[in-house]
Design brief:
2 copies of one chain form a homodimer. Chain A is built from 12 helices and 10 strands. The first copy, chain A, is of the alpha/beta class. Chain A has an 8-stranded parallel beta barrel with strand order 1-2-3-4-5-8-9-10, surrounded by 6 helices. Chain A has a two-stranded antiparallel ribbon with strand order 6-7. In chain A, helix 2 crosses helix 12. The longest helix of chain A has 19 residues. Chain A starts with a helix and ends with a helix. In chain A, 57% of the residues are buried. The interface between A and B is large, with 53 and 53 residues.
Chain lengths: 269, 269
Amino acid sequence: MHIEKLVEQIKKKKSFLCVGLDVDIDKIPTHLKDLEDPIFEFNKAIIEATQSYAVAYKPNIAFYEAYGIQGWKSLEKTIQYVNKHYPEIFTIADAKRGDIGNTSTRYAKAFLESMNFDSITIAPYMGKDSVEPFLAFENKHAILLALTSNEGASDFQFSEKEEKQLFEQVIETSQTWKNAERLMYVVGATKATHFKKIRAIAPHQFLLVPGVGAQGGSLQEVCRFGLTKDIGLLINSSRGIIYASNQKDFAEKAGLKAKELQEEMATYL
Amino acid sequence: MHIEKLVEQIKKKKSFLCVGLDVDIDKIPTHLKDLEDPIFEFNKAIIEATQSYAVAYKPNIAFYEAYGIQGWKSLEKTIQYVNKHYPEIFTIADAKRGDIGNTSTRYAKAFLESMNFDSITIAPYMGKDSVEPFLAFENKHAILLALTSNEGASDFQFSEKEEKQLFEQVIETSQTWKNAERLMYVVGATKATHFKKIRAIAPHQFLLVPGVGAQGGSLQEVCRFGLTKDIGLLINSSRGIIYASNQKDFAEKAGLKAKELQEEMATYL
């Protein structure tokens, strides 16, 4: 998807909400468990209930990989469903891949070509030639981990070199790579004060922000420092939406949660 | 697998060779392509031909993921085949995963429990809580990226903080994590001089060394600085072995290449 289409959709829906599809079979309503593919059925219902309020869906690949071949089937059906019924919605494979060039090319093809996701999250540790293969596809995007919202973020991401912390180095350096205009960054919302620093070095890029809600980040704070004239933010919520209820009304409740977030977002636009 | 079993096998075989199973369907002999599962048949033949000279097998997960569900089937059959016929051989899922805690737990279960690999390679960028879930399994190991052998390694891995480069910080810090005795590290062989530095901070840990051969590293140099009294090295070779021939004699030629490397290794033990 071209970035303009994403911006267009954000403006139309007055939303920059991404719904994280981290589906744990132990947490979905019991009445779905007898169906042939409970995870897909769950996703389908969540997508139907939230699609007017969300501009992106982000399956967390680990949750599918954990179920082996059946999990991959559920994932493929989910992405096909979104691409078929809601082609205007941006899709993110939250896979955090990254390896030497020829290997990254394989991952890139799997997610961006065969499965036809619009984007994939990438780990930066191995540098340029591990990331560039994900940038080689027109209208596709690599979302590079910069500053994450977990506790372990403090282990290495703040290491300094010439007064620049590692997450800043990652953002700066990656902008010199081939097709860098297809890059976005993961920036954890629990560190809203860092958005100012990041916008100084990445003034226009889209930032994918996990950690609003359950992980304690403030949407208002993130918007204050992170919004650009083309919005430039995708705010992810997973558990807060998809597990709003584990009863028969799960989809309805998920829709209400998504609507609530969309309405708050509209006030910041 | 307990580390002692690995050491025992290394001493018995006089080899610390790991064979990388990076199987590209375009590179395997044409006579295999009409079989039901060409990738598995290729792996089976390679394993049979090299198992007396190798102590570890390392499927590169990207190569399987690239073929979707069929690829996962080939991967599962391959690991089951090794575990059934050669349970003494150490297995490595070269997956380079890493995510927030609950997500890493999913990846860990998929590879270390469901598929029953002995170990998995992990990216360190997200820190402690992204790695510890992989260390929670008895007799299983997480192999953390420290210094990689690709060009992009220079982008971030040498960033300095208080005179320590990032790859040194990764090794030092990770040793304070829970169950750190189950850690190993990826150290690229093209940087043999760095082995001295690494052995100063990780004197006993096993190092998985890619990049000998095709990528230009010298086995002798690596052994000079990397060997410990319990060996402490696994040297990976992928393309140099598995694509030694693309004719009907591919397995035989792979066996000869593996034997050659094993014989060189024996001289350093």
